[in-house]
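Protein modeling request. Please complete all fields; requests missing the sequence field cannot be processed.
Requester role: graduate student
Desired output: 3D structure, token encoding
Chains: 1
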Amino acid sequence: MRKFPSDTLRLFPIFIFVFPVVLVIQVFVFHPYFGNMDDSNLLILAANSDPISYSHSFGWRPASGFIQQTSMLITWPVYALGSAFGPTVFFVANALLTFFLVLISAYALTKVLNISAPFTILTFVSIAFLWPYTADLLFFPSLQEKGVLLGAATLFFWVHFTRTYRSSFVFWFTFLLASSVAFATKTHVVFFIPAIVSALWMVNHGRRTSNSVSRLIIATAGLLILSSGTLWLALSGDYSSGTQGTRDVSFLFDRRFQFLVVLAVAYSAYLVYLAVKAEFFAIDLVPLFMVLPFIASFSVWDVRNYYLTVVSIGVAAMAAVVVANLKSKHVGPIAALMCLVIAVTWISWRVPQIYQPLASLQEFLVSTEAQQLARQKEVVGVSCMEAPTHFNRYAVSNGVANLEFKWTAASLDEFEFVLGDERLCPFNADRADWELQWESPSEGGYSLYRNITDVN
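Delivered output (456 residues):
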């Protein structure tokens, strides 16, 4: 751990909390409304269930390949508050939850990596929010990837815990507790197991307070068995099995895959540089082991953008290691502040791109056009398969219950009216056949189109 001026160290915890301030301000500026990814289902469930019943009813679905009770449990306060107080409180709670999960991930990993200075934690949090897919956690509060962040952080905390406590009872009790949390999140948590097992052995190697080899072997076997069971459940489930990839080489041309490979190669080259200078520590491999399994998953998995939200903590850990090894006592803190500025700039630009379309849905539902369509009991098409269920419920709560939404499926021919935007439910038809009837004042928001050709 490098020494820094005490004045600098005292300021950095304050800088970290720039993120929740910016995220909360964005909610109040853009007023996002509930979305179409499980939101209405979970709002109803949270309003009528206690936390345990809520997490069990939506999280215990082994037939689908899911045991996600931890992931569901941590979203209960968000949906309970949203159901009671509306979308603004809902998104504020979700933003604070996301920040908290990133922060505890930063604290756990920097402890394991022996770089837990305030400026390295700031670097970690900044890079985690700079990761382009992390914003999905802000846009879609139902994503179980939040639970994966908590599960991975819990296991890393356990690894750090094993450094100082040799009691057999404490070791196994905390192991069972951490594993229970982690393996009830989502399948993705198994991708962190190589890094967690590696860290477990590294932090216990050559220490007087280290745990016995037999204890580490049994713990490693336990983690591998739990991982195998989680993968088996996912592959046998009727939902998870459908996300398997095409098993060809097309993933090599995926820009997300290429981006991760570049990051992994660059970090590997940096570790070689440290080794040449005799400044390499084996524990610095842990961030690389966090990213490599996700790179490998592209060959067998239909990777969706929101799956990659959890890679943020691996990339952030890489950046934290690099910044922690900067020589000058001032360069590290300056680099951390630069990361902060860039990350805040990024989320200030990125978040409105989805918050504004979300806000525009309610703008439409309270518009005079929506009220007129409701009086005529019109049907409005939307291109997202899940959207009609949620939009119809939102229509009821906004006083236009007779307005019905339906999925357009493969054809727009049967619809006189279609609601679409640029990102959430895109409308890509030939605009020559459609007349704009209503347009959201929010940039990139929903617009209502009327078919000016003959409707079948």
